[in-house]
Amino acid sequence: MDIVISNGSSKPIYEQIVDQIKAAIVSGTLTEGEPLPSIRALAGDLRISVITTKRAYAELEEAGFVNTVQGKGSFVAGGNLELLREERMRQVEELLGRAVKEARAAGIPADEVREMLELVLED
């Protein structure tokens, strides 16, 4: 699992980790039951604080993406397909929002944007 931390990002490091692990789970790169690196190992690989990594894992667990077993580690949670679907929908909504913002900035009317979306959906 490759996680890339950007020091130039406005997002906190733990949030960057959470976003990238969520994306890997949603895309199917990480599958149900698959172990995540230990908190210490990930912190060492990324050269960040163990506390930062622990916070990221805690957020993932709270959101239902990860299960942590004391003494064994953290694993990709399974069985919550609705959670994954909701996360995917949120990502699509975010992308569509950015597309609409770009279209407005370019002066493209809403009916043309709808037409573009219909054409893309046909593919």
Q: How many separate structural domains?
A: 2
Q: Indicate the CATH topology of the largest domain.
A: Arc Repressor Mutant, subunit A
CATH C-level class of the largest domain: Mainly Alpha
Q: For this structure, what is the CATH homologous superfamily of the largest domain? A: Winged helix-like DNA-binding domain superfamily/Winged helix DNA-binding domain
Q: Mind explaining what this structure looks like?
A:
- The protein folds into 2 domains: 13-76, Arc Repressor Mutant, subunit A, CATH 1.10.10.10; 81-122.
- Helices cover 60% and strands 7% of the residues.
- The chain is built from 5 helices and 2 strands.
- It has a two-stranded antiparallel ribbon with strand order 1-2.
- Strand 1 and strand 2 form a beta hairpin.
- The chain starts with 12 loop residues before the first helix and ends with a helix.
- The model has no long low-confidence stretch (mean pLDDT 91).
- GO terms for molecular function: DNA binding; DNA-binding transcription factor activity.
- It holds the Pfam family GntR.
- Residues 11-79 form the HTH gntR-type domain.
- InterPro entries: Tscrpt_reg_HTH_GntR (IPR000524), WH-like_DNA-bd_sf (IPR036388), WH_DNA-bd_sf (IPR036390).
